Every structure is written in structure tokens, then in C-alpha cells.
Amino acid sequence: MDSDENEYSWKVIFVTMCWEAFKMGVKLNDTVTWVGKIDWELRKFHGEEYSTQRGSSYNAYLVRDEKTVLIDTVWAPYDQEFVSKLKQEIDLKEIDYIVANHGEVDHSGSLAELLREIPDTPIYCTQNAVKSIKGQYHQDWNFKTVKTGDKLSLGSKELVFIEMAMLHWPDSMATFLTGDNILFSNDAFGQHYASEMMYNDLVDQAELYQEALKYYANILAPFSKLADNKLKEISRMNLPIKMICPSHGIIWRDNPLQIVETYSKWADNYQENQITIIYDTMWNGTRRMAESIAEGIRQTDPAVVVKLYNMGKADNTAVIGEVFKSKAILVGSSTINKGVLSSIAAILEEIHGMSFKNKKAAAFGSYGWSGESPKIIAARLTESGFTVVNDGLKMLWNPDEQALEECKDFGREFIAKL
Ligand SMILES: Cc1cc2nc3c(=O)[nH]c(=O)nc-3n(C[C@H](O)[C@H](O)[C@H](O)COP(=O)(O)O)c2cc1C
Ligand SMILES: [Fe+2]
Ligand SMILES: [Fe+2]
User: Which domains can be identified in the chain, with CATH numbers?
Assistant: First the structure.
């Protein structure tokens, strides 16, 4: 081969590689191609509620056997991109079925755009998903409702449906592909974690588990009892799971059951040897109380992990993850207009929704004249299922050295009560 020919063949290889890279799909094996969207830009999810510092992905999968199935779609802002890239992967008319594991807009958001082209394609989903999808899109699409154990033959392989009610919506479902033994788990086992690496064995494990835990703590923790029961039910089904493909984040292919085992631990009143101190302050009195309480705790038990978060500055989603890990929390606020600071009201509202179990708590705060805040906080924590272990600590104005010593004592007594 002379040098011209050599250069030509390198060009062909280069162009082919670029074309492959441009095509949307990532082949997971001979049957399954990932056709989702990696969203590196996403920083807030569920409106402004959930922070996604590492972005996310909306995973959709194309399963090709004698029949071809699309499992889930992507979030609405990417619907046109999704459909046009899907066309590069397959002639849309070749899609025999759609599976909608969950009606939430991050997975159903491209259905309207897709069904404009293939309007009669049957959509397999739960009865509750018909309600949630119709409730959002107001379209009479060709729904086929399924229940746990129902099967859909694809030729040599079949899909087995598993209802996952309240994990995390009434409509949630997982789909198992026989032959390849892949569980398409939708939101369960997901993470808001953008990565081009696709698979759990190729990413930083600390990042991965931090995101998986944050996701569980913020989205699934309220349903831990149901999650525990469901995990037991799935294990009784004896599915030979080889890969878990969630609808967000990376795919679990290396020892996929590790995340199932981890979920079993998280669902069972999980806690670490950690105390989280959450506070907000106007003039630093409550912050100085928080720091002295932490000092008292650390002096008494150097092994316990103590973390402090000023909720005026900290990220609520991350803090919910920290509360999830904690065996106890302390919540402090100065009194403002007979109440608590708004960031504390907000995080207490989130904590209340999480239905955490088996955790202890206490309240504190600085005040000027009426000093209601510790009482308000303690009452809310009790309503949220925490065992409040004392009457709380309030300090008039900005604490002096002696008052800070009292705060340390408060920390020592708190840890003694755990
Ligand atoms: C706008 C505002 C409203 C306040 N309302 C109350 C109140 O209703 N009851 C009270 O005891 N103290 C009230 N205070 C006083 C603070 O609680 C007091 O200054 C406290 O030491 C502040 O603690 P911090 O330094 O942690 O912000 C108020 C202070 C401000 C600035
Ligand atoms: Fe969801
Ligand atoms: Fe989702």
C-alpha cells in the first residue's frame, strides 16, 4: 500500500468512527442498545427541589429479538433529539411495542413526539401508569395494562413485568428480559450521575455510591418498608439477574446484585455512626452554639462522625443524604418573629416527608426575648418520627464563654442519651 492509499484508509476509519460516535445508541449486547440521553447540564431536578451536582441521564433501551421493544423514553426537553437519533438507530415502524415502566415526565416525556410518528404502537404499562400518563398528556394511546408476572413474548426471549407500586410512584414497574437476564428497574437503583462510561465498574466508586445513596435517601426513603418487601419478593422470584439497567445514571453490570444488597441495608432503618447538626443563624449566635455542641460530642465520643450544615448555605438534597446516614440529628435556629428561620422550616418539611425511622434528635437556638424556636423544632421533629431526647437548649443573645461551656455540656449529655 502506498502512502496515499494508507492515508485514504485512515480517513475511512476516522469517518466511520465519527459516525459511530454520532449515532445515539450504545450496544450493551447483541440484543439491547441504550438509546437514552446523558444530561451533563442538569443541576436541579423535580423543579428546584433536588440538586443534581453531577448531572443525570434518562436511560431508554431498545430490545431487539423477533419483536422490537423500546423501554422508556427521555425527558421532554430532549424529545425531538431523542426521536431523531432513534431514527438513526432503527426505522421507527419496526418498533413493535413500547414499555413505559413509569409515567413521570423524565421517562414518558418523549412519548408524544414519538407517537406522532407511530401512533398505534401498543404501550405496556401498569393500570396506574395509564392514569398518570393520561393525566399528563391527555391522549388516548394504545395502552396495554400489565401486572406482576405478566409476560410479553419477543420471539426467543420474553419480557416479564414486575409492579413496583410506590417505588416511587403508584405506577412504577420494572421489566425483566429473559435470556439476557437484564432487569430494567426504572428509577430503582438509579443515580443522578452523568457519565459517558455507562457501567458501574468504569466509574469512580465513591462518586457512584454517593449519588446512589443521595438518590435513595431523597426519593425512595419514604417507601423503605415497601422497598424492603419488594426486594424480598424479587429475590423469591429467583431471577438470574446479570445486569441492572436503571432509568438514571450508570448500568450495574459488574456484580449487579451489589446494589440490591445495598438497597436491602438502606431499606432496613439504615444508619451510620454519625450525628448531623443542622442550623441557621442571623448573627452567628446559633452557629457558635452548634460548634460548641459539636465539640462536646467529639470530646465524649471521638469515634462518632459529626457534620455541621448551615441551611442558609448548604444543599438540602445533600443534607437529606446526611440525615439519612445519621443515628441522631441536632437542629438549631435563632428565633425570628416567634418562629424559625425559613431555611430551617424548609429542611424540617423535607425531613418530615422522608419518614425516617429509629433516629434521635434535639433542638437548640439563640434568641432575644420570646425564644420559641427550639420548641417549634422539637415538635416538628417529634411529628417526623424522631425521638427527641431532651427539652432543647436556648441561649439568650450571643453566647459568652460560659454559655458555650453549657453548649458543650449539652453535646456531651446528648451523646450519652443515644
Ligand atoms: C427580624 C428579627 C426578628 C426577631 N424575632 C424574635 C422573636 O420573635 N423572638 C425572640 O425571642 N427573638 C427574636 N429575635 C432576636 C434573635 O432571636 C436574637 O438576636 C438571637 O440572638 C439571634 O441569634 P443568631 O445570632 O443565631 O441569629 C429577632 C431578631 C430579628 C433580627
Ligand atoms: Fe420517577
Ligand atoms: Fe426518574
Answer: 3-267 (3.60.15.10), 274-416 (3.40.50.360)
Q: Per-residue pLDDT for 16 more than 60?
A: no
Tell me, in angstroms, the distance from the centre of ligand 2 to residue 384's CA: 23
Residues, the chain:
418
173 DSSP β-pair partners: 163
- Cα of 219 vs its chain's centroid, Å: 5
For a ligand 1 pocket test, name from 369, 376, 377, 400 the mutation site with the most ligand atoms within 8 angstroms of its C-beta: 369
Interatomic CA distance for residues 3 and 130, integer angstroms:
62
Instruction: Enumerate residues with CB within 5 Å of ligand 2 (an ion).
Output: 104, 187
Beta-ladder partners of 78 = none
DSSP class of 217? I
On whether the CB atoms of residues 260 and 300 are closer than 8 A, the answer is no
**In sequence order, what are the residues at sequence separation of 6 or more whose Cβ sits closer than 8 angstroms to the Cβ of residue 3?**
none
Q: Which of the residues are catalytic?
A: 46, 102, 104, 106, 168, 187, 215, 248
If you measure from the C-alpha of residue 366 to the centroid of ligand 1, how many angstroms do you get, rounded to a whole number? 7
Q: Which positions ≥6 away from 264 have C-beta within 8 Å?
A: 228, 231
* Model confidence, pTM: 0.92
Q: Which residues contact 68 (CB under 8 A, 6 or more apart)?
A: 62, 90, 94, 95, 96, 97, 154
Ligand nearest to the CA of 223: 2
Per-residue model confidence as pLDDT tens digits over 168-214: 999 999 999 999 999 999 999 999 999 999 999 999 999 999 999 99
In 10 A of CB 69, how many CB atoms? 24
Cα 302 to Cα 48, 273, 275, 395: the distances in Å are: 37, 11, 12, 26
- Output the CA 132–ligand 2 centroid distance in Å: 12
Around ligand 1, the residues with Cβ closer than 6 Å are 281-286, 334-338, 366-371, 397-398
